Amino acid sequence: MKQNIVKTRLKNNQPVLGILSNSTDPTVAELCGFSGLDFYMIDGEHSPVTTAQVQDIVRACEVSGITPLARVRSNDSKLILQYLDAGVMGIMMPGVNSVAQAEALVQAVKYPPMGSRGFGPARASDYLLGTMNQGEYVEFSNEQTLVLPQIEDREAIDNLDDLLTVEGIDGFVIGPRDLAMSMGYYDGPGHDEVKRTIAGVVEKIRKAGLIAGTTAATGDQARALIDRGVLFCLNSFAGLLKSATTDFMKGRE
């Protein structure tokens, strides 16, 4: 397992910017790495990406120097294990609303004694052919893996104080669109009540000493979020392509 540069930066209170991608093509991950982004989040929820494809995407990330993370579609320990064994260095889990769900996520991501992740001579451990023995690898993996539940529902907001006490969680990523819909705003998160709610969640996360994350559509938005203490900013692959295309097409106006 490689060092998780993103986690190191976050622990040093440094912001990280990356992309959430639903592409099955490893070349996209490679391009994102060579473009200088900090992390490449494989979207295993809203995409056709299979666990068989994850390994090649992770390889492309490693070649281009970008940290591979993944959003997994369900809080299934065996599914999470497949992503981690392929070399993914952190899991973002959608729809975590309760302490029990958060604890289950930690258990799935971490090896004993921190969790209950099953051990196998898989790619993440260099198939046990690398320089680390099993004990060294287990300890290193537990230190390096990121655990990032998503806040996407009113129920999660109501349970936030308890969620912030769950051991093993590095931070929380707010999903503005789903959160807005759970609040009754089906046209998007641009409403004042949603913005106030998100601001309050960010403040609570920061006061708990954890990482706050959310989406940023532009560099200006990312800068504003970072100024407010949000250290984990992600855009979508489609959104980043659209903004770059829009800017490029101004050339013919």
From TrEMBL:
From which residue to which does any coiled coil extend? none
Molecular function GO terms recorded: lyase activity
Domain (HpcH/HpaI aldolase/citrate lyase): give its ranges: 21-235
Does Plastid show up as a keyword for this record?
no
Q: Which InterPro entries does this entry report, sorted A to Z?
A: Aldolase/citrate-lyase_domain (IPR005000), HpcH-HpaI_aldolase (IPR050251), Pyrv/PenolPyrv_kinase-like_dom (IPR015813), Pyrv_kinase-like_dom_sf (IPR040442)
Membrane spanning segments where?
none
Listed A to Z, the keywords are: Lyase, Metal-binding
One Pfam family cited in the UniProt record for this chain: HpcH_HpaI
Q: Is Metal-binding among this UniProt entry's keywords?
A: yes
Which family does the similarity line name? Belongs to the HpcH/HpaI aldolase family.
Q: What is this protein called?
A: Aldolase/citrate lyase family protein
